[in-house]
Design goal:
five-stranded mixed β-sheet; two-stranded antiparallel ribbon; about 350 residues; alpha+beta
């Protein structure tokens, strides 16, 4: 910016002098080149000064520049005036001969430096604003990631507690062999889930496979539990937040299967709803009993709701629908496919 301003002003003033047939145009051009170099150095000095104040607020830097720039401009204007006076033979008589010329020179370069300072501050303000915006975006992203990770971390202890309860119940019932198989399945499940970063997305196919393994553990405890997984071929590669269904599947076991006489049934399904992906977890049991929505949501359901809000904003929903002998938890989110 500085080179463009000084280069263009030098070219325009020199061209004007040549067209006006001023005396000694080439000598004046040489002096003007030296003065342009001095001006560039002065602007660079102002730039370095403002850079040293970069830790201060923009307002402070603007005040400093506004105070110093007129003095620099005034000094440069007088040096410029006397340099041309010297070049035209007024040696050792550094006094003002033509006040009009002096005033014109002072006004020209004062406004030039003021314009440079204003443009410099405008550019710096733009950079500051962009930097602050980027920094704010990074902080928001870091905060969101930390919040999502904290929400996801609350799920694993909840699931582990429920699973260990199932194994403990088998041991207390004297079903040691089944408890051992369940423990092996639990270990396999954890080997799989611990390899997944809860901050990334997974395909619906992989998400459903994880829940097949979890429900296989629960089927040891509830032998009459029937599990159906409905996944259309065209939705297998759709992507969802990892483990987003886990709390809902756990709730279906805890509040549906565990409190109903056999046989019980759980359906985990995916379906397309326009531009949205719908995932549902339905549990059935006690067909003569009207299920009720909980008075307050538990940790798992609240986590799912918060994670969805963090991921998708208002373009998502979690609807809990009780019915006669059944309860459905249904998630909707934007339909996305992995690259």
């Amino acid at each position: 910016m500085t080179l463009i301003m000084w280069g263009s002003s030098y070219a325009l003033i020199t061209l004007g002098a040549l067209l006006a047939h001023n005396p000694g145009p080439w000598l004046s051009a040489g002096v003007r080149a030296l003065m342009a170099l001095l001006g560039i150095l002065l602007c660079y000095g102002l730039h370095r000064l403002l850079r040293r104040l970069s830790y201060r607020s923009f307002r402070t830097r603007a005040i400093v520049a506004g105070v110093i720039a007129p003095f620099v401009a005034e000094g440069y204007a007088w040096v410029n005036y006397f340099a041309f006076a010297y070049a035209h033979g007024r040696v050792a008589r550094f006094h003002i001969v033509n006040w009009n010329d002096a005033a014109s020179t002072i006004l020209l370069w004062t406004w030039f430096f003021i314009a440079w300072t204003g443009l410099y501050l405008a550019i710096e303000y733009n950079f500051d604003a962009r930097h602050e915006s980027q920094r704010s975006a990074e902080l928001r992203s870091m905060a969101q990631a930390a919040k999502l990770r904290a929400l996801s971390n609350q799920i694993s202890p909840h699931f582990l507690f429920n699973s260990l309860n199932s194994i403990s119940a088998l041991i207390l019932d004297g079903r040691s062999a089944e408890a051992e198989r369940t423990l092996a399945r639990l270990a396999e499940f954890f080997r799989t889930t611990l390899s997944i970063d809860p901050m990334i997305d997974v395909t619906v196919e992989r998400e459903f496979e994880l829940h097949r393994r979890y429900l296989a553990i629960e089927q040891v405890r509830y032998p009459d539990l029937v599990v159906d997984v409905v996944l259309p071929e065209d939705l297998r590669s759709a992507i969802v937040p990892a483990l987003i269904l886990q709390p809902l599947v756990e709730n279906a076991i805890k509040h549906g299967v565990a409190t109903s006489p056999p046989p019980t049934h759980i359906i985990v399904a995916a379906m397309r709803d326009g531009d949205l992906l719908a995932l549902s977890v339905v549990d059935t049991g006690k067909p003569e009993v009207e299920r009720q929505a909980p008075l307050s949501e538990g940790v798992g359901t609240a986590n799912v709701r918060q994670r969805l809000a963090e991921y998708f904003g208002d373009s998502q929903s979690l609807v809990l629908t009780p019915g006669l002998g059944r309860f459905e938890a249904r998630i909707t989110m934007p339909l996305r496919f992995g690259s």
